[in-house]
Design goal:
The protein is mainly alpha-helical. Helix content is 52%, strand content 7%. The longest helix has 27 residues. The protein binds acetyl coenzyme *A (ACO).
């Protein structure tokens, strides 16, 4: 028998249906609430609101579970490649060898970006943040492929946009780095795999050969997989919301990049390293900074700590912490920042303030230390997150279109002035 919830309002009882997910998640379905009762719900920040039903990612914040299409993140991070995971998220299943080869080669074929787009890089100021460049370039792709504007429901055309996005995002990202350091851009090399190609475009120079280190490739594969999707987070919800107006896929993804940029979301990975460097420069007094983070009159927060959903541990942070030790050991890097991060985590996890509020290191706490060890500058950290998150955004957008979801349009409770009459400026 299907479960219902009862709502008693002004003495009247309403029966509301309850939707139950695969993992026994329960939601009171209020789709008809306003029609039935004249009331809306108020949930600032959507802390209790399910915006959709989704078959892509399951996470349980209380027990620290994260699965893409049913597969535990721990298994995917250890055994699969980023493109395999991208296929899983976007098309719903792990690819066969033949399907993966086909998917990889289609992506490889689209890695070049239109020569005219090179001009855009000239126009950005040297100090432009690469996230700003990335969002602008992805949005610009829609102007180079105008046919994509009308093809949201044609699977073949959508697939072509998917290959283009997956392929061009790493070229766009690497070129924004080259721009920032004033080095010549490096064109994609089709004989390399996805991650190798990105590293080559980032670090190859006309003056010397760039040797791709398999340790670095593996580390990057893992990081991209860990970032690939995270259900209805701020940027994924943005992509779905923008896409729900029938905006094209390029533009919806550009909006996701912008949402990710904020320091409370993907921008936190850059902020973590900056925070750790600041604490180190300040003499390494960890307790002082933990106390500042607890002080309500001080705007300082421990970046890389806390999560809207994880209230026990972030499974991605566990994997990254271990990967961090492995990668630094294999590369022979001794980074005092890693020791500082571990010491900070230890102090914070024993502190009543953090225990009470269930604040734990999130995915961003250790990722920057790996990026730094493999030579990626901190301004590029959030860009790396965006490359990883792209398949998730695409999957979320595709699902929203397939579900024929209506345009996203929340309501509000108005708290401004009541009606008043316009007064002439001379009388104010
Ligand atoms: N340092 C100090 N205090 C914190 C922190 C922190 N990092 N995070 C939360 N708190 C405190 C808040 O001050 C609040 O305290 P109060 O109840 O006494 O007022 C309580 O913990 C709850 O915090 P909220 O901000 O209400 O929690 P919310 O779920 O809205 O925010 C968020 C989650 C944004 C991630 C928050 O923990 C934060 O700002 N963390 C730092 C930024 C960060 O690392 N972001 C990356 C998130 S992971 C990702 O997006 C990939």
């Amino acid at each position: 028998m299907s479960k219902t919830a009862q709502l008693i309002l002004d003495g009247k009882t309403y029966e509301l249906p309850v939707t139950i997910g695969t993992e026994d998640e329960h939601a009171i379905d209020i789709r008809n609430l306003r029609d039935l009762t004249g009331h809306i719900t108020l949930d600032v920040g959507y802390k209790n609101t399910g915006a959709t039903t989704s078959a892509i990612t399951f996470l349980d914040g209380e027990t620290g579970i994260l699965r893409y299409r049913g597969y535990p993140i721990e298994q995917l991070a250890e055994k699969s490649s980023f493109l395999e995971v991208a296929h899983l998220l976007i098309y719903g299943e792990l690819p066969t060898k033949a399907t993966l080869d086909d998917f990889s080669s289609k992506i490889t074929r689209h890695t070049l970006i239109h020569e005219d787009m090179k001009q855009f890089y000239m126009a950005f100021p040297r100090k432009a943040h690469p996230m700003g460049i990335m969002a602008a370039m992805i949005s610009s792709l829609s102007t180079f492929y105008p046919e994509s504007l009308e093809t949201n429901r044609d699977p073949e055309a959508v697939n072509l946009t998917i290959y283009r996005l997956m392929a061009k995002i790493s070229t766009i990202a690497a070129w924004s780095y080259k721009k920032s350091v004033g080095h010549p851009i490096v064109y994609p090399l089709n004989k390399l795999n996805y991650v190798e190609n990105f590293l080559n475009m980032m670090f190859a120079m006309p003056t010397e050969e760039y040797k791709i280190d398999p340790v670095v490739v593996q580390a990057l594969e893992t990081l991209l997989i860990l970032h690939a999707d995270h259900e209805q987070n701020c940027s994924a919800s943005t992509v779905r919301m923008v896409g729900s107006s029938q905006a094209n896929l390029f533009s919806s993804i550009a909006a996701g990049v912008i949402a990710l940029w904020g320091p409370l979301h993907g921008g936190a990975n850059q902020e973590v390293i900056e925070m750790l460097e600041m604490i180190q420069k300040d003499g390494g007094n960890i307790q002082k900074w933990v106390d500042k983070a607890k002080d309500k009159n001080d705007p300082f927060r421990l970046m890389g700590f806390g999560h809207r959903v994880y209230k026990n541990f972030d499974p991605r942070a566990r994997i990254i912490k271990k990967a961090c030790d492995d990668v630094l050991l294999k590369l022979g890097v001794n980074d005092e920042i890693l020791d500082l991060a571990k010491a900070l985590e230890e102090v914070a996890l024993k502190d009543e303030y953090f225990i009470e509020r269930k604040l734990y290191p999130n995915v961003d706490f250790y990722s920057g230390i790996i990026y730094k060890a493999i030579g990626i500058p901190k301004e590029m950290f959030t860009v790396m997150f965006a490359i990883g998150r792209l398949p998730g955004w695409i999957a979320q957008w595709k699902e929203m279109i397939a579900n024929k979801e209506p345009i996203g349009r929340p309501r509000q409770i108005y708290t401004g002035p009541g009606e008043r009459n316009y007064s002439n400026i001379a009388n104010r």
